[in-house]
Amino acid sequence: MISFSIDGIPIRVFKNYTSMGGRYPSSGMHVLGSIWNGEAWASDGKKVDWSQVPFQADYRGFSILGCPSGSDCDSQSFLWNQPNTWQLNPTQEKFYQLIKSKYLYYTYCSNPNASQLYKECQFE
């Protein structure tokens, strides 16, 4: 499972289903934060309130837990290889569902054809 959290609250979760086959993720990843035009395709028709500019984001206490390239990523010494980290705990799951219901406007898996195009969408 890959989980992005803010102040301990998960805001995006990517689950690793063994039935998808292979390791997940299967290649290196990076994290990108940006501010973009929210009136684009992913806003579900929501309009940007331009009277609120400038829009700013601050990142403090930012950390990533990941496997360094070339390491033995299956080592039991890594936190993510411990069974209690393979899913959200009940409190995290409750907050995650609340965040999704209030703030998730678009996910490509909501496309009716996505479950055939993207294997991960079959499990959402």
UniProtKB/TrEMBL annotation:
Hydrolase keyword on record: yes
Domain of life of the source: Eukaryota
Keywords: Glycosidase, Hydrolase
Residues annotated as domain GH16: 2-51
GO biological process: carbohydrate metabolic process
Molecular function as annotated in GO: hydrolase activity, hydrolyzing O-glycosyl compounds
Pfam families, per database record: Glyco_hydro_16
S-adenosyl-L-methionine is among the record's keywords: no
Name of the protein in question: GH16 domain-containing protein
